[in-house]
Amino acid sequence: MVLFHQPVCVKFRYFQGVKAHTQRFSPTGGVAFAILFFFLNLNPHQGKTLKQHIAEFDFLGFILIVGGVVCILIGFNFSETSWSTPQTIAPLAIGVALLIAATLNEIYTSRAPIIPPRLFKVRTTAFILVSVFFHALAFFSGAYYLPVYFQVLGSSATGAGVRMLPYSLGAAFISAISGQVVTKTGRWRPVMWFSWVIIVLGYGLMTQLDEKSNNAEKVLYLLVAALGIGCLFQTPLIGLQAAMPLRDMATSTATFGFIRTLGGTVGISIGQAILSGFLRHKVQQIPGLDIDTSAAALNQVVRQIKDIPRMVIKAERAKEGDPEAGAVEKGEKILDANQTQLGVAPAPGDHEGDEEEKARRSTSKSRTSDAADDAGTIAEPEVPKQTTKE
């Protein structure tokens, strides 16, 4: 249920605007909450008091981690303008420094660390968490920007959501199957290795998508990527919990969720920076075209991208003055040139016909003259026959 909830919220937030960005508007979230409320049974345990929680909570580590992540995301946002400006470099540098300080604090703090260092000291758990980060980066980037691709090609918001079904439903279906495979075999490593191979293949195929791709390619490439993406929703968590002692189960699971959320956030920010940078570079090559490439205007940008060819043609016609007259004149020149190359000339009139032919020509004289004018030729005048008296 959570798997359906995440992509739906991402697309709902994107297509419906800033006011609808929170998850409380997602109906699937309400269903998931109701299921957990009524059916989740936890083992009884002795809880801690609020005072004990406050005494153990690592406030310094929390501030450093959140501050570092926020600064890095701000830097990515400013990179839409340029990567070399101070407003881009400063937040990125400050963010990296804060994350380094947070790492040192997590290692030496006497309180309960936000991210236990032992998770990264063990090779298995370190690999799993790094894998989770890049998996979230790839998945959320695809879920967020693939609808943009479909909308640029002319699909509506609803149509783009329908075209995303191979990606979303495919990942959900494969996630359930991979969980059953791990349960039956008791081995999670082969599933993870297989998943990453398929992810690389699927996303490599998606780089081939363009405006000329047919519907079969759009469905097949997304389905291949979903095959790899879906296997990595639950399998890493199983491996992480199997590698950590029971006392660290809650902390490990919380860290797993934090890393996944962080990866998705970074992935969307990087995607926005790349899209804005390339779009600005391409738009600058089109004279007289001005498009707002900021993240806030992404909805409007999608609609404008579809109209770029029409806008360019309109601008070129405006420069030419009267487009209709120019098109007619150009067509006439081409037609005349083709006639000259083919050696086509108007046939002369037959001056030796009988009286019936003369009568027919007489009645169609004006019509022949008009046709000759339209063809760009001069009709030869009628030569009357000379009669002699006996």
Which structural category fits the helices and strands? mainly alpha
CATH class of the largest domain: Mainly Alpha
CA-based shape = globular
Indicate the mean pLDDT. 76
Under the CATH scheme, the architecture of the largest domain is Up-down Bundle
How many DSSP E strands? Answer: 0
Distance between the termini: 113 Å
Beta percentage is: under 5%
InterPro entries: MFS, MFS_trans_sf
Main location: membrane
GO molecular function: transmembrane transporter activity
Organism: Hermanssonia centrifuga
Polypeptide structure, described:
The chain has 390 residues and is mostly helical. It folds into three domains: 33 residues, no CATH class; 64 residues; 196 residues, Growth Hormone, Chain: A (Up-down Bundle), CATH 1.20.1250.20. Helices cover 72% and strands 0% of the residues. α1 crosses α7. The radius of gyration is 35 Å and the shape is globular.
